[in-house]
From TrEMBL:
Keyword ATP-binding: no
One Pfam family in the UniProt entry: Abhydrolase_1
Name the record gives this protein: Alpha/beta hydrolase
Top-rank lineage group of the source organism: Bacteria
InterPro entries: AB_hydrolase_1 (IPR000073), AB_hydrolase_fold (IPR029058), AB_hydrolase_sf (IPR050266)
Molecular functions (GO terms): hydrolase activity
Boundaries of every AB hydrolase-1 domain copy: 26-133
Keywords: Hydrolase
Coiled-coil region(s): none
Gene3D superfamilies: alpha/beta hydrolase
Extent of the signal sequence: none
UniProt KW Hydrolase keyword: yes
Length: 227
């Protein structure tokens, strides 16, 4: 399944995305983790592209997309809103991993009727009680804007309680995929999320760790395809 890399202007800023599948197929938008980019979805897209038009977006500060002065989950949520409108996606399936998963929760809370189905890989919304240290900036060049890291860590350390309070407003059928004990993400938090979203199921892929779709692609797809 061939993947095409494309550029698009969103709200005056230039973004890059990868498209796999027929333009007439039902749309699926995929959002990557912190420090990765849309290419991390290529193996998933090559399979799901048989049924879906998979649109994997480089989120701001990542891949071929714009570097900006400001980064936040809310800004990335708004980027997704502009992307969906620019691509004329009235309703679509949304899949997010880690940072992209949090953006997916926020988008689904704000625009519940735009999301056909929601798939979140190994992340709850940021929660209080867990503190992340600010790492030093690496000396070697990075494939993403380092400024994203302290901005996102700040939000992880001082999360907006509304992100959890509004989980019950996500009306769309939702699938959470956890990476089991091998993941640094507390799996009991995924269970909490699954109980707060009205129509939600949780599937754990034991031994996968945080990068489920990269570590255990077949198990990830076996969870996603029936859903």
């Amino acid at each position: 399944m061939e993947t095409h890399m494309k550029k698009i202007e969103l709200n005056g800023l230039l973004f890059q995305y990868r498209e796999t599948g027929r333009p007439s197929a039902p749309p699926l938008v995929a959002l990557h983790a912190l420090g990765l980019n849309a290419e991390s979805w290529d193996e998933v897209a090559s399979i799901l592209g048989g049924k879906y038009r998979v649109l994997a977006l480089d989120q701001r500060g990542h891949g071929g997309s714009v570097r900006t002065d400001e980064y936040s989950f809310e800004l990335m949520r708004d980027d997704l809103f502009h992307f969906a409108n620019a691509m004329d996606l009235e309703k679509f399936t949304l899949m997010g991993h880690s940072m992209g998963g949090t953006v997916s929760y926020l988008f689904s809370e704000a625009y519940p009727r735009r999301v056909e189905r929601l798939v979140v890989e190994d992340t709850p919304p940021p929660f209080t009680g867990k503190f992340f240290e600010f790492p030093p900036e690496p000396s070697e060049p990075l494939p993403f804007d380092w400024k994203v890291v302290p901005s996102i860590i700040q939000q992880l350390n001082e999360p907006n309680p509304e992100w959890w309070d509004r989980l019950s407003e996500i009306l769309t059928p939702t699938l959470l995929i956890g990476g089991g004990d091998a993941s640094h993400v507390p799996q009991e938090k995924l269970l909490e999320v699954s109980k707060l979203i009205p129509n939600c199921q949780l599937i754990t892929v034991d031994g996968a760790g945080h990068f489920v779709h990269l570590a255990k692609l077949d198990a990830f797809l076996n969870a996603v395809k029936p859903f």
